[in-house]
Design a protein that fits this description.
The complex is a heterodimer of chains A (1169) and B (406). With 1169 residues, chain A is of the alpha/beta class. Chain A is built from 48 helices and 18 strands. Helices cover 52% and strands 9% of the residues of chain A. In chain A, helix 47 (1139-1147) links the parallel strand 17 and strand 18. Chain B has 17 helices and eleven strands. The chains are: A alpha/beta (1169), B alpha/beta (406).
């Protein structure tokens, strides 16, 4: 009994066995590989049995072929069964490969004798793990003694690291003993998997058959874990070799080192294959591994230098010394991989996990993983993906080789199971990067809902065949190839430093499309395992949708019920609640990050959010808290959205009405804020708000309560606010609002008269037009008589009162605000409607193209000037500015030119709107605009400077030093202390009481301020404030200001730093965000790091590799630069930023905050003083 | 956190004089162990080291329960002894630290506050040179004199510049003695002050230009310069706090003269709970009181600290990390405070009810948002545990109101 004897007896029995001779291996092991040949030579077997599934036996001659170059991989898959892949990569350090090569070379019989893949049970569950805490397992004892961290390392410790200079038998013994230990532990704990037992029984049966042949000398090359089990007593009735009815596809593929590395996410790999190759080469040549280690370290330090970080000879020498001394301390003759890595990390990373650490890690992966590729011997039968794909194409009716015509296919995956299979196959082809099919976009769909059918263009081209060959590297069937390719793409993207959340979501979505269930499950586990840390708000919304759709069975390849299942895609059942919850939690946490958003899309996303936490079983307190803060502290848009959300989650029913009323009743001047608030509220709240009396009455009462001029002043902003919802929704809302008036018993006031409404309208219009004309002439008129009082219930007093002195009826007001039923508006109301329609047109979305709704034509005003005059007449000059500004923003270039530089009220919003125009203007117009911008900018600078300067004054006062820092000033010390001089024994002695020190030369008071400003598009107010601040700071005596604007490129505008006008006119907004690059440039500008302040104004939606960004931040901060990230620089102080990235930056040493210009000035003042 | 510095709190194993100090140094506390190990491992040791590298590792990590026996008795050392573990963490860290120092290179221990960096540096110094007393505490006000040398001005004025007028810094003393000098919180020193170490670390000598031409034996090859040479055994262990923001960071030149070891927080929750309990017990022992807090409370404290530190609950749920430091040392402080309060006041109060208040005190330091993060933790992980019928967490959930803003 091998399993229950003591270690020594077991070892003797295992090593001593000759029938069979046991070669206990680990799948990759340089040490064991190096002894295979000698062991086999001396034993001279007639049969070599290798632990590989029987189906793979036919490939062994090709694997061991003299012309084949490792790495190679054998694969076996049960057809159409995801996750059934058995995968065996081989490299020169794989003992099995050495054994196969030896046998093929000598012509010795070699067999694969493991249980066929087709006979393995589907269930891959391990036996339940009983951790017996009372008893320490043998492995734990061994691991603890060796100071190792798990089995892998223990093997390295006990087998690999001691291999050099050892006798082959000693190495074989060590490997067998370690496997035995593991096996005994498993047997005692009852954790041996059923599959393992079945495989061992099968191997024993095959072994017995081989041993039964006369004069057979048999070698069994098995995992050392299984070795002891082969010597176990046989069952009385030999286990019947399990037969399999399932079809199995096998393949021999050329493989590569990057895939072989276990971090590539591909199975059965090993860490750092290139290093293992070095070790096996050294063992073969009997060269000390020390030399290989030193060479590897040198290569790493060269690679670090190549990425322009310092890594010199002393660093490499220290790394090598550490590795070797550590090996000695641990009782090893040569350093193993672990000591090597420890040495490199301690001597080269300098404690920087982010900056230098990443550089060193990249260098390490270059040197330690390598890029070797395998080659198959000529004549190796075609296998794997190509035949499989061709057969699949014939089955699904896709054009294959020989049919190179482009074919279009419309698929209806929901109705036909053939189409479903086709769609899944096509998605997998796309995922595997095989050039064959292209999805034809079906055009935009309403509300982001998927179109039911899909349309594809299929074309078999030479590149199809070529890309199939490439993809075959990842697997022998389409699903494996697609899964493998996705894993590979993911690993590469992560290595490049792409944002983790983005990578995971991309991978998961592609996996869901192509129905790779295990990848979807892994992805969802990763979502709940922290990969959302760097997600942006938009990513999180996407994640929520994705997880929701997977859960609901919306992906054809992941059917939710048997009815929809096809052979390629069995029913998908997985618990996604963890991911759902993680996404919901992250969403709630990221609310802070959108509080300053001015993007309606963010507000719409919020709508999705409220039910997510509840669905995920999340406590609601946190969500309420976050929403309440949004409603309190966000940008106007987000405050509106937040107010509605507060109302929806039921915290406070009255609050919505209160905020609505206060907003509506706010002074006329707050137009932009009011519009933004309404946009936020409506984009979240429609259509649910239509049914809310609190909302409906709030609007009606407020609108009814203003006098005409108050209403007209607010009208443009309200119209702007309501413009966010579609025309048809506005029509509906208008009906609801009108009904709320009429439903209270008030009919149209004019309906009681004996005239047709048309006539009445004409009369009224004529009257009102006349009145307006008289008013326009400046004549004073008596108040209009109160309109005939109809009994109003509830609303009655207010509305009735409102209708009194007001020329524009409540109904017309509502029509104006909503921009609907224009044809019913006459008089002033009609004119106002036409003026506003010039700006808002037909609106967007549902109903925009309905016939019968007029308006929106430019024809009413042939020129902007006329329009502008009409605005002025109707709404007054203050509102005119607002409307023209809005028009300018919406692309009516002439509008801004109508503004009068001398009378314009300077505001950052206006400046922002005007600046957005400058690209589309002629030189002549630009001249006019320049005058306007100058006057606004000058006014703003003056206004800001008066606020900011006090924070910066006193910069020139020198710092008082309490302690002596310089050398002692003897002359003055003696002078000061002469009073203590005493003559004693003829010598003059001084006992100084107060020391005087020579002050170091005065510090030069020049400080450098570098403003690095993101102009990628979403930061306009901050950009303007940055420019203004640059001008103000440039005016300070002790400061030198540099100004960099960046999107994907960096523009150095330092020469204009003192001239905000030039600065603002030079900046072109737009493009992506590459902060790292901008910082790299900024770093090159830094001359005196300790006297440099660097402010990055950005939303931190960085598109570059995060390694670069964090590395640059570290480099700056470590260089001594005082850096500050500004998520927003404006008077609202509400930030909009990517929270994850910002946190990373903050952790790297650059605090991130949203500041007002005044606070920024204070910060600068504090740093300098 | 500026003045925290934990001392090993284990009961003294020697009765040496001076143990009534609040925190006796490790070479005093562990004198017996050090003497034993010096006799036990007689293998080759690096120049100037009192113990062999492997004996140093054993001293720090303990003999993992084994009783070590001397081959032949040695004066002043017991014949057999079990070495207690003093540092909870990865053995590799200590091994690398020892090897670094043996190679006459600077060692920089970096890590979050409360990860026992200072304790490890004290232990290493005690084991290598028998003294952990040569210390410079880095602050923004640390001057170059504290790293190199200062002057006794009275002597200087009376006798002019001479060797006896020099006030040697701990660094210079360590160079002269061939001992380990510890520089705490090196990153808090101004960069120009830190850089005083560059030449000491690379050249292993210190020139004193003021004494040039005095001919008192320190001349460098007749150049007339006075130079102090480091004797074998001289080594520098610096510690740096990764969470300190706004500190002046180290220059690249200085960095290249150090090997960096990052000390992680304790990985195993059981180990951490054990450590917290031991430390809290030890501090109560000093006031002669028994520990009145049961394991459930300590587990809850440690679990909460770990969750908030790692940004992830023990069950794998997401937790928002507060900006404040949630170190093991803070957990010890909280546990000790709870135990003290349970001892001295309100004996009728369940110590568990004190947890939220102390936790808030740790979390809420300078960022108001941290309060809502703690509340989020309560609404998330604590609530779920309470839902899972865990009595301790149910009680804690009921106490949520303590965390809310008054």
């Amino acid at each position: 009994m091998t399993l229950d004897s003591g270690p020594r007896a077991a070892l003797e029995r295992l090593v001593g066995s000759t029938a069979p001779l046991l070669l206990g291996v680990r799948h990759h092991s340089p040490a064991v590989s190096s002894i295979v040949e000698a062991t086999l030579d001396s034993f001279a077997p007639t049969h070599v049995l290798v632990e590989l599934p029987e189906e793979l036996g036919e490939w062994l001659p090709w694997v061991g072929h003299a012309d084949a170059v490792a790495p190679l991989a054998l694969a076996a898959t049960v057809d159409q069964e995801a996750g059934s892949l058995a995968f065996y990569p081989f490299a020169d350090f794989s003992p099995e490969l050495m054994a196969i090569r030896w046998a093929v070379r000598r012509g010795v019989k070699i067999e694969a004798f493991d249980l066929p893949v087709g006979a393995r049970t589907r269930s891959r569950e391990e036996a339940p793990h009983h951790h017996d805490s009372q008893r320490e397992s043998l492995m734990e004892v061994l691991t603890k003694q060796a100071g190792a961290d798990g089995f892998e390392e223990l093997w390295d410790r006990l087998v690999e690291a001691r291999a050099f200079g050892q006798e082959p038998e000693a190495i074989r013994g060590a490997a067998l003993l370690l496997g035995w230990t593991l096996r005994v532990d498993a047997a005692l704990a009852g954790t041996t998997a059923a599959l393992d037992l079945a495989r061992e029984a099968h191997m024993r049966a095959r072994l017995d058959a081989a041993l039964a042949i006369p004069d057979a000398r048999v070698v069994a090359v098995v995992g050392s874990f299984h070795a002891a089990a082969l010597l176990e007593p046989r069952e009385t009735s030999p286990a019947k070799a399990a037969a399999s009815s399932r079809k199995v596809t096998t393949a021999l593929l050329p493989y590569s080192f990057p895939l072989l590395d276990s971090r590539s996410g591909y199975p059965a790999g090993i860490r750092d294959p290139a290093w293992q190759q070095r070790v096996v080469d050294a063992l073969a040549l009997r060269v000390p591994i020390d030399e290989q280690a030193a060479e590897a370290i040198t290569l790493v330090s060269r690679a670090v230098r190549a990425s322009r970080h310092a890594a010199s000879f002393p660093d490499a020498r220290e790394a090598a010394r550490l590795a070797m001394d550590l090996a000695r301390l641990r009782g090893l003759t040569t350093p193993s991989r672990r000591e090597l890595l420890e040495g490199i990390e301690a001597a080269m990373c300098q404690g920087e996990v982010l900056g230098r650490g990443r550089v060193v890690a990249r260098a390490l992966s270059e040197v330690m993983i390598g890029d070797r590729r395998g080659v198959l011997a000529d004549g190796t039968p075609r296998s794997g993906l190509a035949p499989h794909v061709e057969a699949l194409f014939r089955e699904l009716g896709f054009p294959g080789p020989g049919d190179t015509k482009t074919k279009e296919m419309s698929l209806d995956a929901l109705r036909s199971s053939l189409d479903r299979r086709r769609e899944i196959a096509l998605e997998r082809l796309v995922a595997a990067d095989i050039v064959f099919a292209e999805r034809i976009a079906s055009g935009p769909t309403a509300g982001g809902i998927d179109a039911l059918g899909s349309k594809w263009s299929l074309h078999w081209s030479p590149s199809t065949a070529a890309t199939i060959e490439l993809a075959s590297l990842f697997g022998a069937t389409l699903i494996d190839a697609a899964g493998g390719k996705l894993r590979d793409t993911r690993a590469r993207a992560l290595e490049k430093g792409t944002r983790v959340a983005l990578v995971e979501l991309d991978t998961m979505e592609a996996a869901a499309r192509s129905g790779i269930a295990n990848l979807v499950i892994e992805g969802s586990a990763r979502l709940s395992g922290g990969s959302l840390a760097d997600a942006r708000f938009a990513d999180l919304v996407r994640a929520q949708t994705l997880v929701g759709r997977i859960g609901a069975g919306h992906f054809a390849a992941l059917p939710a019920s048997d009815d929809d299942a096809v052979p390629e895609a069995p029913v998908f059942q997985a618990d996604l609640s963890g991911a759902e919850r993680a996404v919901a939690e992250a969403l709630v946490a990221s609310l802070d990050g959108v509080s300053g958003s001015i993007d309606v899309a963010d507000a719409i996303a919020l709508r999705e959010l409220t039910d997510a936490p509840a669905r995920a079983g999340l406590g609601e307190g946190r969500l309420h808290h976050a929403i309440a803060r949004l409603a309190r502290e966000g940008s106007p848009l987000m405050r509106g959205a937040g107010a509605v959300l507060v109302f929806f989650v039921g915290v406070d029913l009255g609050r919505l009405q209160a905020s609505l009323t206060s907003l509506l009743d706010a002074p006329v001047e707050g137009g932009a804020d009011r519009a933004a608030w309404m946009r936020g509220a409506l984009s979240v709240g429609m259509p649910a708000l239509e049914a809310e009396p609190a909302f409906v009455n709030g609007i009606v009462e407020a609108i009814a309560s203003w006098p005409d001029d108050g209403f007209l002043g607010r009208l443009p902003s309200l119209r702007e606010g309501f413009d966010v919802i579609s025309p048809r929704a506005r029509t509906r809302l208008l009906r609801v609002l009108l009904a709320s008036i009429e439903g209270d018993g008030a009919s149209e006031s004019d309906a009681v008269l004996a005239a047709t409404p048309e006539e009445m309208a004409a009369f009224a219009a004529a009257d009102l037009a006349a009145r307006a004309a008289l008013l326009a002439l400046g004549l004073s008129l008596p108040e209009l008589p109160p309109s005939p009082a109809e009994p109003h219930r509830e609303l009655a007093p207010k509305v009735a009162e409102a209708l009194g002195p007001h020329a524009i009826s409540i109904r017309d007001r509502l029509r104006l605000v909503l921009g609907r039923e224009r044809e019913k508006l006459v008089g002033v109301a009609g004119r106002a409607s036409v003026v506003l329609d010039r700006l808002y047109g037909r609106g967007e979305g549902e109903g925009a193209n309905d016939p019968g709704e007029g308006g929106g034509t430019d024809s009413a005003f042939p020129s902007v000037r006329l329009w502008s005059e009409e605005i002025s007449t109707l709404f007054g000059d203050r509102v005119r500015e607002e409307i023209l500004g809005r028009a300018a923003e919406r692309g009516t270039p002439g509008a801004a030119l109508e503004l009068d530089p001398s009378s314009v009220r300077p505001s950052v919003e206006l400046l922002e709107q005007i600046l957005s125009l400058k690209g589309g203007l002629s030189e002549g117009d630009l001249g006019k605009l320049r005058a306007l911008v100058r006057s606004i900018v000058e006014a703003l600078v003056a206004e800001l400077a008066t606020r900011v300067r006090p924070a910066l004054t006193g910069l020139v006062s020198p710092r008082a030093t309490p302690r002596g820092k310089g050398p002692i000033d003897l002359r003055r010390t003696i002078q000061k202390n002469l009073g203590t001089a005493r003559r004693r024994e003829g010598v003059m002695r001084l006992a100084p009481e107060r020391m005087v020190f020579r002050e170091r030369q005065k510090r030069s008071l020049d400080w450098h301020v570098v403003l690095v400003v993101d102009v990628s598009g979403s930061m306009e107010p901050s950009v303007i404030y940055s420019a203004l601040m640059a001008a103000i700071l440039s005016g300070m005596p002790a400061l030198t200001v540099k100004f960099l604007a960046f999107n994907e490129r960096v523009v150095d505008l330092s020469e204009h730093a003192g001239d905000p006008l030039a600065l603002l006119l030079e900046i072109a907004i737009g493009g992506g965000t590459l902060i790292g690059q901008a910082l790299a440039y900024a770093r090159s500008l830094v001359t005196v790091p300790s006297r440099t302040l660097l402010c990055v104004v950005s939303d931190f939606e960085d598109a570059g590799p995060s390694g670069l960004l964090l590395g640059e931040v570290r480099a700056l901060v470590e260089g001594g630069v005082k850096a500050l990230g500004l998520a927003a620089l404006d008077d609202h102080g509400a930030p909009r930023f990517a929270r994850g990235v910002a946190e990373g930056i903050a952790a790297a040493g650059m605090p991130v905050a949203a500041l007002s210009p005044l606070e920024l000035a204070r910060w600068i003042g504090e740093q300098i003083r | 956190m500026a003045t925290k510095k934990e001392k090993p709190a284990s009961a003294p194993t020697s009765g040496a004089a001076g143990t009534d100090a609040q925190a006796p140094p490790p070479e005093q506390v562990f004198a017996t162990e050090l003497a034993f190990l010096a006799a036990y491992d007689s293998g080759p040791r690096p120049r100037g080291f009192r113990l062999t590298p492997s004996a140093i590792v054993t001293f720090v990590m303990g003999s993992s329960g084994r009783v070590l026996k001397l081959e032949k008795p040695v004066q002043g050392a017991p014949s057999e002894l079990e070495i207690r573990a003093k540092f909870i963490g990865e053995r590799g860290v200590v091994e690398r630290a020892v090897i670094t120092l043996a190679g006459e290179r600077g060692l920089l221990l970096a890590g979050d506050p409360g990860t026992a960096k200072s304790m490890l540096s004290e232990l290493l110094a005690a084991a290598i040179s028998g003294s952990s007393q040569l210390t410079v505490q880095g602050t923004a006000g640390t001057t170059e004199e504290q790293l190199k040398y200062g002057w006794n001005y009275a002597t200087l004025l009376a006798h002019g510049p001479s060797k006896s007028a020099i006030v040697a810094s701990p660094v210079l003393q360590a160079m002269r003695r061939g001992a380990v000098v510890r520089i705490e919180e090196i990153t808090r020193c101004l960069p120009e002050v830190q850089d005083a170490l560059v030449s000491i670390l690379s050249d292993r000598r210190l020139a004193i230009p003021e004494l040039a031409g005095l001919g008192d034996g320190g001349d460098a090859a007749g150049s007339g310069e006075h130079v102090e040479y480091a004797r074998p055994g001289f080594a520098v262990i610096a510690t740096a706090n990764l969470r300190d923001r706004g500190v002046s960071e180290m220059s690249a030149a200085l960095k290249r003269r150090f090997n960096f070891e990052t000390i992680p927080s304790i990985a195993d929750p059981r180990e951490e709970a054990k450590l917290v309990r031991e430390k809290a017990e030890a501090s109560l022992e000093r006031v002669g009181q028994p520990m009145r807090v049961d394991d459930a409370v300590i587990d809850a404290v440690v679990t909460a600290f770990r969750d908030l530190r790692l940004g992830k609950s023990a069950e794998g749920w997401g937790v928002e990390r507060p900006s404040s430091v949630m170190s093991t040392a803070e957990a010890v402080a909280v546990t000790t405070s709870i135990a003290m309060q349970a001892t001295y006041f309100a004996k009728d109060r369940d110590p568990l009810t004190l947890v939220p208040g102390y936790l808030l005190g740790v979390v809420l330091k300078d960022e108001p948002k941290d309060r809502s993060r703690l509340l989020a933790y309560w609404d998330g992980s604590v609530k779920r545990r309470a839902d899972a019928k865990s009595r301790v967490w149910q009680t804690l959930l009921e106490l949520r109101s303590i965390l809310e803003e008054a």
